[in-house]
Amino acid sequence: MADRDGPDGPDERWKTAIRAVIPLFGFIMCRSFIPTTMSLTLDSPVIRNAPTIPPSSSTGKLPALGWNTWNAYRCNISEEKILAAGQQFVDLGLQRAGYEYVNIDDCWSAKSGRDPNTKRIVPDSAKFPNGIDQVASKIHDLGLKIGIYSDAGTKTCAGYPGSLGNEFTDASTFADWGIDYLKYDNCNVPHNWTDKRPPNNDWYYSYSAIRFRQMTAALANQSRPIQYDLCIWGDARVWEWGAKVGHSWRITPDSTPTWDFILDAITTNVDILNRVDFYSHNDMDMMEIGNGKLTLQEERTHFAAWAFMKSPILLGTDLGNLSQVQLGILQNPEILAFHQDAMYGQPAMPFKNAGSLKTSPPEYYSGQSVKGLHVFVINLGDRSSEKSINFTSVPGLGYNSSGLVLVHDMWTGQDIGLYRDSYNFSMEAHDTAAFALHLPSVTFPVQETIRSSSRTLLSQIRTPEAITAGT
Ligand code: GAL
Fold first, then answer.
1. Secondary structure E strands in 202-344
2. How far is the CA of 107 from the centre of ligand 1 (A)?
3. Is residue 135's pLDDT more than 60?
4. Which atom of ligand 1 is nearest to the CA of 253?
5. What is the pLDDT of residues 334-382, one digit of tens each?
6. 275, 310, 335: which is the final residue of a domain?
């Protein structure tokens, strides 16, 4: 059958017309989308005018240690609850252990908006009848520090006034009130601040980073140092530029009291641990210890992993509900000392322990502190299992195969004993073991070590004499 329309029939004319229109359509699309993406260069006005001031070096050297209202109370906060938490820091020994920050999260302000004259955010008068400054001064009287929360968008995540465009007003309000720490969230970002591909793929020049940089500059303009946490949930490759903007930055979604969350946070952090050092901390989010569901071993891992990765540790429960065992975990002096070490800023890093499986996240980590070399081992398994630290695998230990290693348990504060080649031990499901390893000098008091060890461990101890005799 002959072609119904022929070469110049209506079908062909349509096709010709469409072919002519396509480039025009493409041009319009390009005008509206691609040039905005392509046009982000270092010369773009938003980028050119963005502040480059670094965060304060008078605070934030070490990862924060404290408490935050959100996981415990959500929006149901008040002056009483915050002051009670401060008092509990003192009464429960948390302050003595090093906990310092009492932080107010979302929902502290009047939802209706700012003061029409001063443009300042106004505290909710039912929750804070005496204002935030009064609470701050009572927290300071306890020898503690106080934190507050705002957002690099038009509203906070719970819908209260945000600080975007009001950074200087809000930073000066916080400073006037005596605030020491700001958690700055990332909700309700207006359309014109949506991220576009930054020049040279350097996310310090992304619109996200610039929203947070505006607050860095505003905080720098205040007479008191304010520690600055970027609550950006790992967006915009924050670990690449966070240290130029703040002291710590969230790398995870919101915490939940589940083993899965703990594992995910550790797994995420493992890949970016080289970003962690003094003034520079990947924030794995607030603690869930005390919020049910986790086993004792999972709580130990939650605390120990946050500590050896040098994440901020902000407790997130009603402190009055913590058991003695939970308080014991949270106040463990040796693990907290590793976290707060003023000489060594780097976290423990994963290492390949000979004979162990390759897992995700890794199970074996080592790191340095003023006390020496530490090894942390996580049992990822769902049942108890045997672990072995192979001394020649431990980076920095400098193990010489003819020598002995003194193994010290950081959880109990006790020396376990002297071992050659490796230390084998059994672990409960989901637990974390924490050790200090020392190469004792010739004069090391072996008998003392043996005496201070527990009965069960005594059987594992092999003295140098026994080792030499091959028994
Ligand atoms: C989330 C943040 C939480 C909490 C909450 C308050 O974005 O990750 O930690 O601050 O907002 O609305």
1. 227-230, 248-250, 281-283, 313-315
2. 10
3. yes
4. 8
5. 999 999 999 999 999 999 999 999 999 999 999 999 999 999 999 999 9
6. 335
